[in-house]
Write a structure and sequence with these properties.
- The complex is a heterodimer.
- In chain A, 75% of the residues lie in helices and 0% in strands.
- By secondary structure, chain A is mostly helical.
- In chain A, α1 packs antiparallel against α5.
- The longest helix of chain A has 34 residues, at 140-173.
- Chain A is flat, with a radius of gyration of 23 Å.
- Chain A starts with 24 loop residues before the first helix and ends with a helix.
- Chain B has three domains: 1-50, no CATH class; 51-607 and 651-700, Cytochrome c oxidase-like, subunit I domain (Cytochrome C Oxidase, Chain A), CATH 1.20.210; 617-650.
- Chain B has helices spanning 28-48, 52-60, 65-96, 115-149, 158-177, 205-233, 246-278, 291-325, 332-345, 361-373, 375-389, 398-420, 423-429, 433-462, 468-495, 510-539, 581-587, 609-626, 629-649, 658-678, 690-694; strands spanning 601-603, 654-656.
- Chain B starts with 27 loop residues before the first helix and ends in an 8-residue tail after the last helix.
- The structure holds protoporphyrin IX containing FE and copper (II) ion.
- The site of copper (II) ion (CU) has 5 residues of chain B, from α8.
């Protein structure tokens, strides 16, 4: 009765899963995490769209515009810190391939420190703006500027907590299916945040600086 | 940087104060008393029958996708009832408050609801029906059915599944508590800029709205990830994409939408929160804000969302029609492509919700054409269903009636949607009750499909059928209500009645409103019929027990395992050979072949973490709404710490041995044989909640 031509002979057909079919925990996990990151990417895409709409001259309502306070070299230092952090994490993951626990821990520690450098630079920048009276309440344009950059910084903050948690887990539990799976997903997260930073740097800081 | 609050604020309680409890309100105060008494009775009964441990062990801490699905559906039905009461209140106000001479009570000039209260009722009605009734009901069905249809033992992430449920429950609780503590938003379910700004809506209503929606968005995103990963990763051997049951395809397309569109809502809400809490100027009038940015962001999510809810409903119809036409689904491939096309196009049409923004002829035309494109895949589906029934051996049982009703409503809603998609018409009827009638036709497609599915899949989950007589009674009453309420509504829309009127100025509309009020009374009768249906079915459950294939003509994999479905779904995973595997095996007489031997299987453990996290998100939402900062910090920290602790502990799961599986399976087969030869003359004993009773594990092995 099936609509397409039946190719299977019911007498010989295999009816049950005989070779104990079990799925791969790590790949299932990374797939799910990839899907989550997709939604995170959409979140940033929407924020960028809002920024795009709110970065016209009139959006700043006569108040400060990024062109007046952005220092590209300062944010370039942040870029370098974040990229080196991702690189360090990559070295750590390379050590994981060789089951080298201390190599992994060192890599993650370096990634953590560099991430902290990034965040400290960001906080310093924000408090500097605050001291000049520039906040997200200054104008619609500044609201978009602040929220986009600080949502990214918040991601970095939670990533740093996660790095610490994973260092503790690797030290106490070693390389189990669970910890390795989490190390992989954390790497995906950390990479994506760096990629998004590229967009933030170009479209918010550099663009804001020249316009 | 925090905004100045109108009214009081204290560090301990935030904006919360006794004056926020509406104990003097003549509607809410008695309701509150009734709710408290009801709650005491329910809790008392649970205690009296000693069911707390059962409840905790079997339901509240479960990670079983079927039980989570059942709880999703219960939440959905409860909220559907709440939303229905709101609808009843709206209709009653409008039939009452017509013309300057209409009377007024309870401090209202006309009717019985003040404008502020009326605004809250319709805002809550819309939000609840779309996001806390339809969405949980559909997610519940996807949860129950998708893993079984693809031959899996559970979702890809059972714990995440539980978390999604409890976050949804927290959202439902948050909007329910807004009844008795403070006010809800009164600017409509999708709100408007800048009226939701602090300046114009100084109360907590908009804040309740923000955090309820945020929680729903979070829960739905988690659920969406889970279902997608389950479909991609957990299919039984042999189940290639071309053999995927159609409901699974529908769930896949719907969750692609959910995953990609909910972030837009989260951002929109987050920016509203930034305005209201931090004094940002995203959507303010002046200071460089942009009002229409909000409307765009909201509908960039909002339109995909309406397809997120209708695609699973289409999937349900695609399961019901073939079963009761005794034919395979007509045009499987085109059905799949149509679902995917709808999911894709749903992204390109959001502007049709505000053609009147005045974006100009080019923009409006582009979005108008894009909107009409949706009609093509939708039409393909309608024809496929029609051809599935054509020359079929039709059984007009209650499930089939609901599905056919859905088909009719889809035609009406689709046609009126096409009319609205034409800007020239849209300018005339935008924000009239014509639009309201359009989307109710559409959302009723979902409600019809859901009730059809309740009847269709109930025997699978609980092991017995629902009563046909009362199910049909309910169907006819409900359909009469639909016609009586929505036909006059379309007409009033053409006459120019705008939506959300708490006072109807034109006395000429009275007759129509009278008919609609009568319609809502008929709806109320159908709700009663539903309660009777449940009562009668549970009372007679022993007579209506079913075997694995409850309908005898079913086609997809869920009908291969026992009814009720054992907690491990399949003792041995099936190997899939054909698209409609069950129909194929039945046709070739191999549907009774049992597996030869049973191997050990691995199952996840229950966990209390998910429900605790759900409770904490509720506290967080409540604290944010009332600006109780210390409580925000405490609950947020608790959430983070709990997640870290859980991640350290992990879940090793447990093993069910092959021998034990064999014992449970033989028990199930024995019961099935008993049902088969009882021919409904000897009722078959056993608990109502078959799941818990039928597959008892030996406690020693736990
Ligand atoms: C054939 C496909 C459809 C077309 C062409 C269509 C068209 C439209 C248009 C043009 C509007 C805007 C009316 C206005 O405000 O002036 C609208 C509103 C709406 N539609 Fe549809 N629609 C379709 C399918 C659906 C479906 C499947 C659903 C939900 C399941 C749905 C739910 C809604 C809702 C909820 C609104 C209005 C929301 C509000 O203003 O509160 N529509 N539709
Ligand atoms: Cu739409």
């Amino acid at each position: 009765m099936s609509s397409h031509a039946s190719t299977v002979d019911p007498k010989k057909a295999e009816l049950w899963d005989t070779h104990h079919h079990s799925h791969d925990v790590i790949s299932t996990r990374t797939l799910g995490y990839f899907l989550y990151l997709l939604s995170d990417g959409m979140l940033f895409a929407t924020l960028f769209a809002a920024y795009g709409v709110l970065s016209y001259q009139h959006s700043y309502f006569g108040g400060p515009t990024p062109a007046e306070f952005v220092k590209p070299w300062y944010t370039f230092a942040q870029t370098i810190a974040l990229f080196l952090s991702v690189l360090a994490y990559g070295f750590g993951m390379n050590a994981l391939k060789h089951k080298n626990k201390s190599g992994l821990i060192n890599g993650m520690l370096a990634a953590f420190v560099l991430g902290v450098v990034f965040l400290v630079l960001d906080i310093h920048d924000m408090s500097h703006l605050y001291s000049m009276g520039i906040t997200l309440a200054s104008s619609g344009g500044m609201s978009a500027f602040m929220v986009l950059t600080q949502v990214h910084a918040t991601h970095i903050f939670f990533g740093l907590i996660w790095i610490l948690v994973m260092m503790a887990q690797v030290m106490t539990k070693g390389f189990t299916e669970e910890t390795v799976g989490r190390l992989l997903t954390l790497r995906m997260f950390w990479h994506l945040q760096a990629v998004i930073w590229v967009f933030v740097y170009i479209f918010v800081y550099l663009w804001g600086y020249i316009s | 940087m925090l905004v100045d609050l109108p009214g009081g604020w204290s560090p301990l309680l935030g904006r919360l104060a006794w004056s926020q409890i509406p104990y003097a309100n003549p509607i809410l105060a008695p309701l509150f008393v009734a709710v408290v008494i009801g709650a005491i009775i329910v809790l008392g009964l649970i205690t009296y029958y000693g069911k707390w441990t059962y409840l905790w062990k079997e339901w509240l801490t479960t990670v079983d996708h079927k039980k989570l699905g059942v709880m999703y559906i219960i939440i959905g039905l409860v909220m559907l009832f709440r939303g229905f009461i709101d609808g009843l209140m709206i209709r009653t106000q409008q039939v009452w408050a017509v013309g300057p001479h209409s009377s007024g009570v309870f401090g209202s000039l006309h009717g019985y609801l003040t404008p502020f209260h009326f605004g809250q009722v319709y805002s809550a009605h819309g939000l609840i029906m779309i996001l806390l009734a339809a969405t949980p009901l559909l997610v519940g069905f996807m949860n129950i059915i998708v893993p079984i249809q693809i031959g899996a033992r559970d979702m890809a992430y059972p714990y995440l599944n539980a978390l999604g449920l409890w976050i949804t429950a927290a959202a439902a609780a948050l909007i329910m508590i807004s009844l008795f503590v403070g006010d809800f938003a009164h600017n409509g379910w999708f709100e408007y800029a800048p009226i939701f700004e602090m300046q114009y809506s100084p109360g907590v209503g908009v804040d309740y709205w923000i955090w309820t929606l945020q929680l729903v968005a979070l829960g739905t995103t988690l659920g969406g990830i889970n279902i997608l990963a389950t479909i991609i990763k957990m299919r039984a051997p042999g189940m290639s994409w071309g053999k995927l049951p159609i409901f699974v395809w529908a769930s896949l397309s719907a969750n692609v939408i959910a995953l990609t569109s909910f972030p837009a809502l989260q951002v929109a809400l987050g920016l509203v929160a930034a305005d209201r809490y931090l004094g940002a100027h995203f959507f303010t009038a002046g200071m460089g804000g942009n009002l229409m940015l909000y409307t765009n962001l909201f509908w960039i999510w909002g339109h995909p969302e309406v397809y997120f809810v209708i695609l699973p409903a289409f999937g349900m119809m695609s399961e019901i029609f073939p079963t009761f036409s005794e034919k395979p689904l007509f045009g499987y491939i085109t059905m799949v492509l149509a679902s995917m096309a709808i999911a894709g196009v749903s992204w390109l049409v959001w502007l049709h919700h505000f053609f009147t923004m005045g974006a100009g002829p080019y923009v409006n035309t582009a979005f108008s054409v894009a909107t009409m494109l949706v009609g093509i895949p939708t039409g393909v589906k309608v024809f496929n269903w029609a051809f599935t029934m054509y020359r079929g051996r039709l059984t007009f049982n209650a499930a089939m009636l609901w599905a056919i009703g859905a088909l009719f409503l889809l035609l009406i809603g689709g046609m009126t949607g096409m009319m609205l998609a034409i800007p020239a018409i849209n300018y005339m009827v935008h924000n009239s009750v014509f639009v309201v009638a359009h989307f109710h036709s559409m959302l009723l497609v979902i409600v019809y499909a859901i009730f059809g599915s309740v009847l269709y899949w109930f025997p699978k989950v609980f092991g017995f059928k629902l009563d046909e007589f009362w199910a049909k009674t309910m169907f006819w009453l409900f359909s009469a209500g639909t016609a009586l309420v929505f036909v006059p509504m379309y007409m009033l829309g053409f006459m120019g009645m705008t939506r959300r009127l708490e006072y109807v100025f034109n006395t000429g509309w009275q007759p129509y409103l009278d008919v609609m009020e009568f319609g809502i009374v008929v709806y109320t009768l159908s709700v009663l019929a539903f309660f009777i249906l449940l009562y009668v079915s549970v009372r007679d459950h022993a007579k209506n027990r079913v075997g694995a294939d409850a309908w005898g003509t079913s086609r997809s994999l869920e009908w291969m395992t026992h009814s009720p479905v054992p907690f491990y779904n399949f003792a041995v995973l099936p190997h899939i050979n054909e698209r409609d595997e069950v129909a194929w095996r039945r046709q070739h007489g191999i549907d009774n072949v049992r597996p030869e031997h049973y191997e050990d299987i691995h199952m996840p453990n229950n966990t209390g973490v998910a429900i605790i996290l759900g409770g904490l998100t509720f506290v967080l939402g409540f604290a944010l709404t009332w600006r109780i900062w210390w409580l925000c910090i405490v609950s947020l920290l608790a959430i983070i710490v709990l997640m870290i602790v859980r991640s350290f502990r992990g879940d090793p799961g447990y093993i069910i041995t092959g021998a034990e599986l064999q014992r449970m399976e033989e028990e199930a087969y024995r019961r099935e044989a008993q049902i088969a030869d009882s021919h409904h003359s000897h009722p078959v004993s056993g608990g109502v909640v078959g799941n818990a009773m039928a597959y008892q594990r030996n406690d020693s092995s736990k």
